[in-house]
């Protein structure tokens, strides 16, 4: 066991890890997997967006970089145009000097892509997105239509406030749910219709406050009702009102999440995997929110990744033999890279595309044999990379991700703060930056909540369109737009009193943090040991202080109705 040099916690380096490090010529890490992940994630900003102008065409744009970013920032059209060439910013490298300071000099002058939002229509306020239409404030989502406030999802229509969903329509506040219609507050459900505040339903409809049901209709708290009884009971909860919705959500947290058994981890069609929310994967060690992966360790938010370690936000094209990468797709044998697509044999590169055999490059497109954006012959490139690597090894740079202080984002505006929340003093002590000037306002609301009707039926789209609210939790201002008001009216849902950021953090809190704990099954069904307790132990993301009854997979399946 080793002790992490940052958090001091013990962590294990396995023989499998050592074989992988040897294959990619990288040293054993000095930090634990959690600290390594937070370090990489501090370089990715998804949700904090700024209004600024393009550094090339001077047109107004939405960007993940503020106007005080130290480097030029280009809009999508300019970045992919032939009006500039990243190699024109290339510079000589001194192979005998520390490499990171030389990389930083290149970083400060090389243009960056202002926002990752490809081939989308009327979806300017989206980031890390592809082929969306009429979407607003969705992040990491692809091929969606008329969606708002969503994350890491694809092929949804007319959906709000969601996380990791697929092919849903008219759904609200749903997570890890697919092929469902006109439903609210679902988690880990599939093929459901008009279901509310439930968990792990399959092929069911008209269910409320239920869990683990299969092919059921008109159930409340897992008990059957007639159609008429169900509709009367559902109406009594007054989900069209803010007070009724808040009461229902409280019941969901306390009596559904805390009252029904919970499986230790979510794995579908997986073999020899450790972690949760894994699909169609094999031999994944300490991985979370991943699908179609094999022989991967210490990864989070991945699709189609093979024989790799320390990955974040990888997909959707196949990636293989990579180490310490984030936001990459379609990459092969890449190390210490940030947001690189369709590349091979890159090391310490950021925002490089369709390139190969490059070292320390930024915003390069179709480059080869480049160091710090300067092109070399193959012979000179290979010789100089060898010299740079030896200097980095002797100076302690080799094997580390880009220095924390080089991140263009404060820890509190990066995705690191969402998965690994920490206070300003703590993260600054670890060397991270902190942004004291995030783009939000308070005290600018155009109404007070006491003046707004409790029911959505008593609000009009005309009166509330464009209205600015104050979040009842964090006091930040947020605006209601016409499209979401139409959605609330269609689903008979009240106006949310929480801002989009607080609603998002609430969805994350309903899921689990990306760490594993050893627990014993809580099932007390007769037929186990002499005390009636199951003796099976497992690793789960549920902490010992959580209220859920966590069952092993065998006991959980016996509870399924």
Task: Kindly describe this structure.
- There is one protein chain.
- It is globular, with a radius of gyration of 25 Å.
- It is 21% helix and 26% strand.
- The protein is α/β, with parallel strands linked by helices.
- The strands form eleven sheets. Strands 19, 20, 21, 22, 23, 24, 25 and 27 form an eight-stranded parallel beta sheet that branches.
- Strand 3 (50-53) and strand 4 (60-63) form a beta hairpin.
- The mean pLDDT is 94.
- It has 13 helices and 36 strands.
Write down the overall mean pLDDT.
94
Low-confidence stretches: none
Structural class: alpha/beta
Question: Biggest β-sheet, characterized?
Answer: 8 strands, parallel
How widely separated are the two ends?
43 Å
Radius of gyration from the CA trace?
A: 25 Å
Topology:
Layout: E1 2-3, E2 10-11, H1 15-24, H2 33-41, E3 50-53, E4 60-63, E5 73-74, H3 76-79, H4 99-107, E6 112-113, E7 117-118, E8 129-130, E9 148-151, E10 160-163, E11 172-175, E12 184-187, E13 190-193, E14 196-199, E15 202-208, E16 217-220, E17 223-224, H5 227-236, H6 242-257, E18 261-263, E19 267-268, E20 275-279, E21 282-291, E22 294-303, E23 305-314, E24 319-320, E25 323-326, E26 329-332, E27 335-338, E28 341-347, E29 356-359, E30 368-371, E31 374-375, H7 378-395, H8 416-419, H9 424-429, H10 461-464, E32 468-470, E33 477-479, H11 482-491, H12 500-510, E34 517-520, E35 537-540, E36 549-551, H13 553-559
Parallel strand pairs: 5-6, 7-8, 9-10, 10-11, 11-12, 12-14, 13-15, 15-16, 18-36, 19-20, 20-21, 21-22, 22-23, 23-24, 23-25, 25-27, 26-28, 28-29, 29-30
Antiparallel strand pairs: 1-2, 3-4, 16-17, 30-31, 32-33, 34-35
